[in-house]
Amino acid sequence: MPKSSFNDITVLDFSRYLPGGYATQTLADLGANVIKCEDTGLGDFMRHDFPTKGGGVSYYVNALGRNKKSVSLNLKNPEVVEAFKKMAAEADIIVESFRPGVTKKLGIDYDTIKAINPRIIYCSISAYGATDPRSLKPQHDLNMQATAGYLAVNHGSMSPLHLCDLSTGMVVGQALLAALLERNATGEGCYIDTSMFDCFVWWNSLLDSRWSFNDGVCKRTDLEYPSLAYNVYETKDGKRYSLGMVEDKFWTNFCKAIGHEELLGHGLDREWEAPELFETVREIMKSKTCDEWVAWFDQPENANMCAAKVNTKTEAVAQLCEENPEALAYVEFPRVGRVLQTGLPHHLSNIPTPISEYKAVSDLGEDTEAELKKVGYDDETIARLHEEGGIKFASDFPYEEDRAPIAPEGFVNNELGGLY
Questions:
Q1: pLDDT digits (tens, 9 = 90+) for 65-79
Q2: Is 141 part of the annotated catalytic residue set?
Q3: Torsions phi, psi for 37 (to 5 deg)
Q4: Averaged pLDDT, 181-189
């Protein structure tokens, strides 16, 4: 990993699922020593989400676990809790996503750790915040999207990405960096109480502001898009092409080039405002195949227009690997072989983070022994804790059978209206 000031930062990551893992991945990529603290059962649940390959390594942990170590601890064992406290005394950051009150019961809450290490930056992630009773109820990304009003605006459609989780991961990453900067100035750590719901509401700022300015109305059909000039259209061969000509100059160029100047001045019309013009553009886009449109837009006289073919994921991966290898590239990881990794997009000139240097996530418990030795535990004590089941090593977890949930060819999910 890169040589940087982050090499001196140690992160103990107790979080599960996407939000915490997404945030700590950034720190790991920048060179921090990120240790996944996992239980002695199955570890992080997302290690086992399918599809898997290479002895049960899931796509999820492959995407979010790179450059991270792993220790397997039974925090119901008081002696192991003491071992963790010794690790925490040397750490800079702790990230956890237990329900409120759990860390207190375990004896590893912020107040306890702060007494041991006043410089600790301790981040809790919960649905509605550590003091909100709603966080004690089970909630997931989809439920909070529903509560925030986003699903209603989006016609109840589910996104392939977990938007609430992603917004939380972004906020946590920003908060951790802000806390590190403040600690450099004051020498003091802090507690970060992260509400996933608040993070997603923040991402909804444009929709909520629109609702306010529009006298309490925010409907999908009332948004600026899809509009005539900002939409996705079917081509002659059943594929799709995107037009993104919000600015009038681009739409004007397009209308003149296709010989339909009756469309001028209507680029931002919604379908309910100009249904006949929508039919005109649909017929125009269906007059050529997708490849023919690619060739048409590649002509010098048509280059000054915002348009792009709708790639399949397979086409997009091939294009990205060729044109943007800093963003997406294949690497060789033990057990799973050749896999895709996305690059860290921050591109700091003084902290290079090339994909080629990424390392696969440690196997569950792979670093337990080494990390305990760092805080003073000898071989005899580690062996005893292992024998008692207080800790586990990678050798304690047999490889799993690989799974791949592929839907039948041509299966249609009618609720989402798409092909799997």
A1: 999 999 999 999 999
A2: no
A3: -95, 110
A4: 96
Percentage of the chain beyond pLDDT 70 is 97
Which one of the listed residues 165, 198, 363, 367 is annotated catalytic?
165
| Average pLDDT across the chain, whole number | 92
* Residue 121 pLDDT > 90: yes
Q: What is the pLDDT of residues 38-56, one digit of tens each?
A: 999 988 888 888 888 877 7
Q: Is the pLDDT of residue 150 over 60?
A: yes
Q: What is the pTM of this model?
A: 0.90
Q: Alpha-carbon torsion 360, 366, 368, 373, what sign? A: negative
SS3 sequence of the chain: CCCCHHHHCEEEECCCHHHHHHHHHHHHHCCCEEEEEECCCCCCHHHHCCCEECCCEEHHHHHHCCCEEEEEECCCCHHHHHHHHHHHHHCCEEEECCCCCHHHHHCCCHHHHHHHCCCCEEEEEECCCCCCHHHHCCCCHHHHHHHCCHHHHCCCCCCCCCHHHHHHHHHHHHHHHHHHHHHHHHCCCEEEEEEHHHHHHHHCHHHHHHHHHCCCCCCHHHCCCCECCEEEEECCCCCEEEEECCCHHHHHHHHHHCCCHHHCCCCCCECCCCHHHHHHHHHHHCCCCHHHHHHHHHCHHHCCCCEEECCCHHHHHHHHHHHCCCCEEEEEECCCEEEEEECCCCCCCCCCCCHHHCCCCCCCCCCHHHHHHHCCCCHHHHHHHHHCCCEECHHHCCCCCCCCCCCCCCCEECCCCEEC
